[in-house]
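Self-study notes.
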Amino acid sequence: MNIENAKSQMRKGMLEYCVLLLLKQRPLYASDIIQRLKDAELLVVEGTLYPLLTRLKNDGLLSYEWQESTQGPPRKYYALSPDGERFLEELNEAWTGLSNTINYLKNVRTEFHL
């Protein structure tokens, strides 16, 4: 089994959750999202992020607003919608449960009885 492939699949599974966590703090421009994910050592390219943002917007979880920029054309800033906030709360609960399961399994001492 290829460990890099396994790690890539784990990152893909967490990306949506991580983006929503960032947008809960404040509206962000796509480049800002990429930089913050990079700062957290979750490397994402524009070709991965933009389709995700579009899907989340189409699902009603994000809204966006165009803001003028001093360095070029207007920028699209993404924010959580009310539905996105509720969805993030559900993801937080799911993450807590999953994290508890993983921590339990990492620390459990099993005995096999034959």
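Second protein, same conventions, sequence then structure:
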Amino acid sequence: MGNKVKFNLKNVHAAKLTEKEEGGSAKFEYGVPKAIPGAVSISLDAEGESSPFYADGIVYFRSVTNNGYSGDLEMALIPEWFRTEILQEKLDAKGVLVENSSVAESVKFALLFEFDGDINAIRHVLYNCSASRPSIESETKEDTIEPGTETLSIMADPRSDGLVKARTGDTTDETTYKEWYKTVYTPTEEGGGMA
């Protein structure tokens, strides 16, 4: 496995994913992306293997499996809506967030973001993410007060139809780029299919 590379982020959004069976095939629906203010960084590792096949003394072909990505999403504070909608914490009658061990797994979501300082301002979406419970960190220093951050472990798996991620490119049309954070972009087949 390679080293995780840490990227500073901006415009981070998450959109809840619902997968339904319809006529024998899966149908994917996303909620409206909601902003996660104060997201600091993401470090992702590609998951998968590259297996060479040798013939005639050379690598004849290489089979590569794409198992998505795994990594950490660091933010100043996990928003309450993310805790309730995605991490399945419950808000009680007094407005207290309650974590219950009977909740099996977090809800799947799409993660949308761009890298801070990217000259081309490429926008990205990971289609099928799940997050594990955050670690609790707080830092106190004598001279300076450094705010603690919260880190979520993220798994970005391929969807059951194989879709992993998408990003804007040089020829992405202006409307699609501008509205990237309004709805989750889903690939269209026409125009030469997916790259």
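Instructor comment on the second fold: The chain has two helices and 13 strands.
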